Amino acid sequence: MRKEKRSSLFAETMSRIWSNPGAKVGIIILVIIVSACIFAPFIASYGLNEMDLKNMFKGPSAKHIMGTDGMGRDLFSRLLYGGRYSLALGICAAVVGSVIGIIIGSVAGYLGGQAETIIMRFMDIWSSLPSMLLCILISAVLGAGFFNTVLALSIGNVPIGVRLIRGQILSERSKEYLEAAESINCSKISIMFRHLLPNVISPVIVDATMGIGMTITMAAALSYIGLGVQPPTPEWGAMLADARTHILNYPYLIMFPGLFIALTVLAINLIGDGLRDAMDPKLRK
Amino acid sequence: MSLIEVQNLKKYFKVPTGLNHAVDDVSFKIEKGETLGVVGESGCGKSTLGRTMIRLQDATGGKILLNGNDITNAKGNELRRVREKMQIVFQDPYSSLNPRIRIESTIMEPLRHSKLYKTKAELKDQTHRLMELVGVDERLRQSYPHELDGGRRQRVGIARALALNPDFIVCDEPVSALDVSIQAQVLNLLMDLQEKTGIAYMFVTHDLSVVRHISNTICVMYLGQLVEKASTEDLFLNTLHPYTQALLSAIPSTDIYHPMQRVQLKGEITSPINPEQGCRFLARCPYAIKDCKQPQKLEEIEKNHYVACCRVREIN
Fold this sequence. Notes:
The complex is a heterodimer of chains A (285) and B (316).
Chain A: H1 9-18, H2 21-38, H3 40-43, H4 75-111, H5 113-128, H6 131-142, H7 146-155, H8 158-172, H9 176-183, H10 188-200, H11 202-224, H12 236-243, H13 252-279
Chain B: E1 4-15, E2 18-30, E3 35-39, H1 46-53, E4 61-66, E5 69-70, H2 76-85, E6 86-89, H3 103-114, H4 120-134, H5 150-162, E7 168-172, H6 180-197, E8 200-205, H7 208-214, E9 217-222, E10 225-231, H8 232-237, H9 242-248, E11 299-302, E12 305-307, H10 312-315
């Protein structure tokens, strides 16, 4: 008997992303960076805070491929370790922000009426505050640290997710399958999350992916002004901040962290673009 | 006692300019195993009537009785039980199935919610039995709706409605989105199911040949009100209300020697928003007189033939 090929939404999306050259490049770059960061202890030839005071401010060489910083620490090793924080911050904040946004947005979109008006006006106020400012405010109040930074960074992503999800739900709300679900005794929660959400979530996933890139730059910015991850923890933004006094004398100290940030963000944005094309239901066969 | 009895049912929608009288003072009964056809032009409130009856929308006034119990305001567990007895088949099989849920799960869902079946195997068995009953091949169980054609999707929709063994199904134009050949298949399926299970239908449609084929009794609606109600045969052979006459004369004739004399209606449809008290067909009726501005009542003109027109005796 012929075995019928059935692909889930996930597998289908993946295969379609892979056929997009831009997204393919993005995935390859990201996989390399992420695995290098995860396996940092095996790749880096020096420890995280291993100082070599005889070799301060050495430019790139065979011994230190990206040179050393003001304390003689190997820049390449620190970039790999630091990537763990930057990536984790970016991903966690984008996911947390979007999940909160999705929940609030679904409630607003599905309930409608007064509840929707109140939530949406509140979101208008929320998004009228510059997200960087909110971010600084929250980390200043809560203090630095990984979780506080995640919280501060995710705040800015919430209203975007709410708006996106609500807009999608408004266009989906009148579809008959929701009435059908109601007529077969589905609970409101089940209609909202089992029936409605899978049909409206694609743009939010795309947006959250793009958001990771933006959040990484935001995290770097926070660390740069000293509110994010604290030294001596290596984080790309913090490393940039450390190097800013040497920008004229030792430009490589700023170039390499900057390059890592730029490459990662570029890769994520390429994937996000590919994802948007892949998840567009109008392009499905 | 009738299976379903609707008494003076009203459903008004608030719109910026007033109240839209979508269903206004409609009463009828449906017996077990019977099919009631509801016909009327687009926007006359037939779908709203169906949706209000099975409590997808709350009625503004009047009563809905199921087996003699008032279910107009049923809530919570009572409403859940009511919904197991009354189901709906939707017009558009493309939007009535969730595009992200496989066929098998779609049919299984009402069974899962009813908690009648304890084990997974029982659930699957029952689902496959339903698929067989409506003629959906078992190999399609893992398919998504977009992989199926319109007729098959509608069969899935019917299977979902049948899952809980309802006594009554509202068919909201179930074949109007399908090809003619598929229409016949689905209609025959519905009639076969009625023979097997004694289910009652309310068949909402604007397709007069379909309604003639399937119904025992037909209600003609115009702007939210019933204007004529009679057995199918009676309605087609002895049409009394001027609106029904115009409606039936619009059925295309295949007999070239005796072409239908079409009754051409003039004028615009009256707005259903805050309508006048009198006959709503007044503005387009060729027989309208002053008396038509009085409220019209559905009267039994002949045995089991109800008409809402004060001039019905004069004009026929």
